[in-house]
């Protein structure tokens, strides 16, 4: 016990020494520029009203728990109906609901590639993709971010069934994958393209259908993962693909088989979020206007380094863990909830402020945020 505690203490102290120690904080009184609630579904009350309206029609189900995994006692007509709806909405053949995006990626990547198969993944792919690949025992290689030429070179290392894993919108850089080129490349090398649409769900395509469907690539993508804890304002995720893929995941994806299923109210929340997406494009229009405003204001600052992003995820590069934390703390003291992203989450030297824009942020809030960033970075605060 002593040696284990010593290891824990030494590891945490190392994090403190290099400025990468993490802790939980409450910033509920600050203006939100850090959450993934891009369309305001979680915070503005519209989704809550939809859920309450729906629950009034079936009040006896509102507080029901799921009671077990889907394969034992946790399945329901509402779960199956929702999966059919999700598949139809995203122009897919079938969908399978998981409890989170992390569960979906770990389940998918851990059970499909086998020991003699090969997985190529973008170097900036989410940790859940990497963790799933690691559990699969397949050979895996990372390719340079959004670099299709480098991926093409790596195909000479391919063995067995080949899978290529990317995100349609990257969570830390806020840029978009070249899905058309990737799909064509996978087709030419008989590889299977898997796309994580976590941050694109609700934001891209007609009614937030996602990048794959926006580009009409559904038949060229082996599997897609959509999550509901970001722009959709709820919780959970779904993998979309063929009926064959769904049956396989139900039989071999351990994060599905051995997890208690989502309860009734979570399933209803997902369904209501889709209703909101279909009812109005106004949140997306407001979001796009706010993105343009922020970019137009921030590029005027000669002393600020930003990444090239046209998405809700905007980044200001502040090298060094200690420095980026210091800058973020100064901005928070001025009333803005902006968080530092430190290494090892991002590469050393590319530490940053990760700024998430939302449909509900006002023009004055965005202008004030940019002014504050300019003053803090230039040392005038």
| Strand residue percentage | 5-15%
Q: What is the succession of H and E elements?
A: HEHHEHEHEHEHEHEEHHHHEHEEEH
What is Rg?
21 Å
Q: Please identify the structural class as seen in this structure.
A: alpha/beta
CATH architecture of the largest domain: 3-Layer(aba) Sandwich
Main sheet overview: 7 strands, mixed
CATH topology (level 3) name of the largest domain: Aspartate Aminotransferase, domain 2
Assigned CATH superfamily of the largest domain: Type I PLP-dependent aspartate aminotransferase-like (Major domain)
Strand tally = 12
| Overall geometric form | globular
Number of domains: 2
Q: Determine the N-to-C terminus distance.
A: 47 Å
What is the name of the CATH class of the largest domain?
Answer: Alpha Beta
Structure overview:
This protein is α/β, with parallel strands linked by helices. It has two domains: 119 residues, Aspartate Aminotransferase, domain 1 (Alpha-Beta Complex), CATH 3.90.1150.10; 222 residues, 3-Layer(aba) Sandwich (Aspartate Aminotransferase, domain 2), CATH 3.40.640.10. It has 14 helices and twelve strands. Helix 4 packs parallel to helix 5 and helix 12 packs parallel to helix 14. It is globular and about 60 Å long. The model has no long low-confidence stretch (mean pLDDT 94).
